[in-house]
Amino acid sequence: MTDTVDGERADQRSAAPEPATPEWERLDHRTVLVTVLILIGVAVLAGVPTTVGLTAWRGIGFALAWVLPGAFLMIAVLAGADELRWRRTRYRVSSDTVELHRGILFLSRRRLARARIRAVDTSAHPVMRVFGLTRLTIGTGEQGGGGTDTETIVLEPVTRETGERLRGLLLNRDSSSGTDTNADDTERLATWRLAWVRYAPLSIATVIFVGAIVGVPFQVADWFGRGGLPVEVVRALIERHGVWPVIALGIPVIVIAAGIASAALNLEAWWSYRLDREPGGTLRVRRGLLTSRSLTLDEQRVRGIDLIEPLGVRLVGAARVQVVATGLSTEAEQKSELSTLLPAAPRPLALEVAERVCGEAPSVPLAGHPVAARGRRLRWALITVAVLVAGWALLAGLTGWTTWWSITVGVLVALTTAALVARALDSYRNLGHALTERHLVTRHGSIRRSTVLLRRDGIIGWQVRQSVFQRRKGLATLIATTAAGKGRYAVTDADAGRALELAAEAVPDLIEPFLAASSDSGR
Fold it and tell me: Bias category Basic and acidic residues: which stretches (predicted)?
């Protein structure tokens, strides 16, 4: 009898409802220490060149008299502001909402319904990682009038354990667990390989680093009052070794250095990358060497994938996979790393990941587009060549037409024509579309070839666009609109009649009333 009574009391205690209004919580107070350490680093980086410049002008005593008080004042003011921010920030997570109150001069109150939360992102730079802290971003993906995500709550910083607990809780997973709970039920979709770094130098980042390598020496020299020093160094090398040896050696050195920098950036961003399908129907991407990043996305919000093959990466048989999903803001979508499920990797693996995420492979046979689409691309290529030739000829005429100019313009015209015509033909070959049981598939592009699998039930509207030139050739661009990803995905330069048929087949109830109305008005 006693055992029965005790059991009933235990059941009553376990069945007792949780408090409807949980207590408000604070961020981790070590945020002030993190801020101070970062500001010290900024002060050193900014103070050293400033001190050198002032020393050359008025001496070391004058330089330190200005730089040190300025650095201390900056650190004190900003650290004090962060202390006030910490004191004025509160958050709480109830059964229905996530709330954040913050503000120093003006109080801001923000509340998100948990049912609308689409993604949870955690990140931590090296200083935060030292203290076991992380930045938690909770978003719904809804857009404001300015194109920003107005439905986002950022908790910075919280402890790593708190971040994991809230991540699991907000995405309907076991809130009392850490990362490894139910590890046996987690499905690993992809794991980082060091060999993938070889694709990094083939990306656009290498071109950007080439510009940086050329421009940074001028900026550094300008800090020390010697802005013309790089030009003087190059001129001295040319006088000593000649023009062509300097060019033949200098360009490869710059390109190789840019490639190494691109590979280093890739290593930092994607080190220890893992893509998992976790219990509860979520996809989780974890990566990062110095700055750790983790994005968890509800699979119910996935509307498709985008298989991206930049020209350099495509030539070596690689591709990357981006997700098309609600819950990622337009700003995040434009920053491809935030929506990337798989970095540049062997194409067979990219196809496998895409198929496991979407349930269908993006390598389905695609219907080609009319020959008129090829003609449009070739005409634009030749028009571009004509404009460039006119510009080069004008420049040569203004500077004096010489044999050297004649050879240079001839070589430029030949190379540019060949490159643009090849690009036009490749762009036409890459055009294609298809309908599968669940997806609309569309492909276009040459320098950046993109193959999109968009779920048919995620299409919320159609737009048919025809320029004057497209209308003359019987072509049209069919644009599928969706609430996910970039919001608009196009079937470019398709046959105009086929574009309407494709829209009707993909989502019959959406466009058939307009086709019927158009048919009735034409009688």
Answer: 1-12
Under 8 Å between Cβ of 462 and 476: no
Give the DSSP letter of residue 443: E
The answer for residues whose C-beta is within 8 angstroms of residue 497's C-beta and 6 or more apart is 474
Q: Which residues have a Cβ under 8 Å from the Cβ of 180 and sit 6 or more positions away?
A: none
Phi and psi, residue 123, nearest 5°:
-150, 155
Contact 95, 40 (CB under 8 A): no
Alpha carbon distances (Å) from 53 to 40, 47, 68? 20, 10, 14
Between CA 97 and CA 102, with CA 98 as vertex, the angle to 5 degrees is 135
Is 81:70 a contact under the CB 8 Å cutoff?
A: no
For 437, the 3-state DSSP assignment is: coil
Alpha helices in 202-301 (DSSP H): 204-223, 229-241, 243-270
CA distances from 394 to 176, 193, 380, 391, 405 (A): 72, 51, 21, 5, 11
Where b means 16+ CB within 10 Å and e means fewer, 384-410 reads: ebeebeeebeeebeeeeeeeebeeebe
Tokens matching residue 77? 């003011």
Task: Please count the other Cβ atoms lying within 10 Å of the Cβ belonging to residue 113.
Answer: 11
CA dist., res. 266 & res. 318, Å (int): 15
Residues shown for the chain: 523
Structure tokens at 137: 């971003």
3-class state of residue 471 by DSSP: helix
CA–CA dist 327, 483 (Å, integer): 9
Q: pTM higher than 0.70 for the full model?
A: yes
Please name the amino acid found at residue 473: K
- Token pair of 74 as six digits: 């900056």
**Residue 452 and residue 304 in contact, taking contact as beta carbons nearer than 8 Å:** yes
Tens of pLDDT along the chain (523 residues) come to 344 444 444 444 344 444 457 889 999 999 999 999 999 999 998 888 778 777 777 778 888 888 888 889 999 999 999 999 999 999 999 988 999 999 888 888 999 988 888 788 899 999 999 999 999 998 876 554 444 445 789 999 999 999 999 988 888 644 444 444 455 578 999 999 999 999 999 988 899 999 999 888 888 777 766 778 888 888 888 888 888 888 889 999 999 999 999 999 999 999 999 999 988 788 999 999 999 999 888 888 899 999 999 999 999 999 999 999 886 654 444 455 678 999 999 999 999 999 999 988 888 899 999 999 999 999 999 999 999 888 877 877 777 777 776 777 788 889 999 999 999 999 999 999 999 999 999 999 999 999 999 999 999 999 999 999 999 999 999 999 998 888 899 999 999 999 999 999 998 877 766 555 455 444 4
- Taking residue 9's Cβ as centre, other Cβ atoms within 10 Å add up to 10
Provide the strand spans (E) within 395-484.
Answer: 432-435, 439-444, 448-455, 459-465, 475-482
Query: What would the two tokens of residue 511 be?
Result: 């466009």
